[in-house]
Design brief:
Helix content is about 5%, strand content about 45%. The protein contains five helices and 29 strands. The strands form six sheets. Strands 3, 4, 5, 9, 27, 28 and 29 form a seven-stranded mixed β-sheet that branches. Strands 1-2-26-25-24-23 form a six-stranded antiparallel β-sheet, with no helix packed on it. The chain starts with a helix and ends with a helix. About 50% of the residues are buried.
Length: about 400
């Protein structure tokens, strides 16, 4: 239950959208194909030539950063913040780094902050998940706690199930090599699988990261440390401890045809490295096929028509992939901006009422500063994108 969570683990034409933040959220609707570029505070740059590089990295962006989209698509900043990252004088726009995200059937957005997954150090990194109601938000250091959801967790990552009806949270203790999978339902976080094993038995999960669920309710979890995808039944019982063996699996999703997609870091010891990575598509019977080799997937989300969309941080782009391996270019980022996690908003009565159904939400690194992210909402005719290639 909620109070015992920590014990489990420790025990074509293009439109361009500027990534800036203004009251009421920046909207590029009607801008395609004209480029809408943000203006920068050049006076500050000239008045302070002595600013150090470290200070510049956390200052508001001075480059003309854009999101380049196909005609008919628009983008706007959906969640941002002020007063995070860096010194008091030069803090930048954005919220603390949130590489994974999920949306439930009401349109609420869940964001998991980074932990100590890939680096050592003598510190205890506990963070809470953010929950943002439909409509977006602007956080500050004073209001941040209002958006916390559930208890602080080690190295938490959040993943979405079908239609936003189920959400999953993975967490692990790096030093004890024990991981846990939780199910998040109706605001409650419940233990699902993993945790401290019985004496003399190995842990079920060591470093769980992405999770996904198929139409039968079976749950798949990427255990990056052991190089396997573990398959559980709907009750959390292990069906196959090594359903798929692949080097450093991290991101997972299940498409509309019940195929499991697995993003692997490949030779990249840390996901911010270049890889090459791999993207696998696994049929319900277990037959697997390598679809894409090269990009290291930061996020996966199923889109219309059986396609899956990929956040490629190294390539500074979001692209779709069809079942036959064709790539669909969606968004390119400039001047140090790069995508991380992404998720499509499920189509439900609540999300249609909120005007969000079918939109894509993406976590974006701003001007190369991974400690600060913004959540961007991309809208457009996704179902038509495949026909444009």
């Amino acid at each position: 239950m909620i109070g015992s969570i920590r014990d489990h683990a420790t025990g074509g034409k293009q439109s361009r959208t500027p990534l800036t933040v203004r009251p009421g959220w920046l909207d590029s609707a009607g801008a395609a194909p004209r480029a809408a570029r943000m203006t920068t505070n050049r006076a500050l740059r000239h008045l302070r030539p002595w600013l150090t590089l470290a200070a510049a990295l956390v200052a508001p962006a001075t480059a003309q950063a854009e999101i380049v989209l196909p005609a008919g698509f628009t983008a706007r900043v959906y969640v941002t913040g002020d007063g995070f990252g860096g010194s008091t004088e030069l803090r930048g726009r954005g919220i603390p780094t949130t590489p994974t995200l999920a949306v439930d059937q009401t349109g609420a957005l869940y964001l998991a902050r980074s932990g100590r997954r890939y680096s050592g150090g003598e510190f205890d990194y506990l963070t809470s998940i953010y929950r943002i109601k439909a409509g977006g938000a602007q956080l500050t250091a004073a209001t941040e706690a209002r958006y916390f959801h559930g208890p602080p967790l080690h190295n938490a990552q959040v993943s979405g199930g079908r239609g936003g009806r189920e959400l999953f949270v993975t967490t692990f203790d790096r030093d004890r090599r024990v991981g846990v999978l939780y199910r998040l339902i109706d605001g409650r976080i419940l233990f699902f699988a993993g945790g401290t094993p019985d004496p003399g038995t190995p842990p079920v999960l060591v470093q769980p990261e992405g999770a996904a669920v198929d139409s039968a309710g079976n749950v798949y979890v990427a255990d990056r440390d052991r190089g396997v995808v573990v398959r559980f039944d709907p009750t959390g019982r292990v069906l196959d401890p090594s359903y798929l063996r692949v080097t450093r699996p991290r991101t997972l999703t299940v498409d509309d045809t019940d195929h499991l997609w697995v993003g692997s870091d490949g030779s990249a010891e840390a996901p911010w490295q270049a890889g090459p990575g791999e993207l696998w598509r696994v049929a319900p019977g277990g037959e697997r096929r390598l679809i894409v080799e090269g990009p290291v997937s930061q996020g996966l989300s199923p889109g219309p028509g059986g396609s899956v969309f990929v956040a490629d941080r190294q390539g500074n782009e979001i692209f779709g992939v069809t079942a036959d391996g064709n790539r669909l270019s969606l968004a390119r980022f400039t001047d140090g901006d790069a995508p991380r996690g992404l998720v499509f908003v499920p189509d439900t009565a609540e999300t249609r009422a909120a005007g969000l159904a079918g939109d894509l939400l993406a976590s974006v690194i701003r001007t190369g500063v991974f400690q600060l992210n913004q959540i961007v909402r991309i809208s457009g005719p996704f179902s038509e994108l495949a026909r444009r290639r």
